[in-house]
Amino acid sequence: MIAIVDYGMGNVASVKTAFQNLGYQVTITDDIEELQHASHIILPGVGSFKAAVEEIRQRQLLEALQQLATEKPFLGICLGMQLLFERGYENGESDGLAIIPGTVEQIETDYLLPHIGWNQLQVALDDDEWNQFEGNHVYFVHTYQAVSESKYLVATTDYGTTIPAIVQKGNVYGMQFHPEKSSEVGVQLLKKFMELTT
């Protein structure tokens, strides 16, 4: 059973549908016991970093999510990926889940913000598992980006600057774009996550 974390700020329905279309059983929950019994944890998110952290804290999920990330395959999507990092600067400074070293800062680019639309993936690793996605287009909606060490980067995209698109640390993955809104490529990316972690 895949568990999608419900903290009031995620596009949980479309993420659930995407995994169900791949044949998986999915639950949407903020119940810690239910999360502990899941095989995989999915942390989606839409909105601001600060508000998301506040919601997670109010639901007493922060420490549970940090622990679950050490035990189970874990995927952060869009804002959910940003929350994996140590600190964010959207609407003031806030601590994140601190699962992956790094910060989340406003994109520094001459292009218009937010970064909205289809953009190409550039695979950062010479890795047969991910090379199939080189040059594929996925759908982004964000104004802030992760700033982290290159060893955590699986893929990037270019928007007048290099933006981390897929990150990984151990069993924890993050996708800055919306795979559930990225057509067949997004489906295949979710499938790849499940193949690598099952």
Automatic annotation (TrEMBL):
Pfam families: GATase. One of its GO terms (biological process) is L-histidine biosynthetic process. Signal peptide: none annotated. The active site is at 78 (nucleophile), 178, 180. Keywords: Amino-acid biosynthesis, Cytoplasm, Glutamine amidotransferase, Glycosyltransferase, Histidine biosynthesis, Hydrolase, Lyase, Transferase. It catalyses: 5-[(5-phospho-1-deoxy-D-ribulos-1-ylimino)methylamino]-1-(5-phospho-beta-D-ribosyl)imidazole-4-carboxamide + L-glutamine = D-erythro-1-(imidazol-4-yl)glycerol 3-phosphate + 5-amino-1-(5-phospho-beta-D-ribosyl)imidazole-4-carboxamide + L-glutamate + H(+); L-glutamine + H2O = L-glutamate + NH4(+). It is found in: Cytoplasm. CDD domains: GATase1_IGP_Synthase. GO terms for cellular component: cytoplasm. IGPS catalyzes the conversion of PRFAR and glutamine to IGP, AICAR and glutamate. The HisH subunit catalyzes the hydrolysis of glutamine to glutamate and ammonia as part of the synthesis of IGP and AICAR. The resulting ammonia molecule is channeled to the active site of HisF. Heterodimer of HisH and HisF. This is Imidazole glycerol phosphate synthase subunit HisH. It comes from Gracilibacillus halophilus YIM-C55.5.
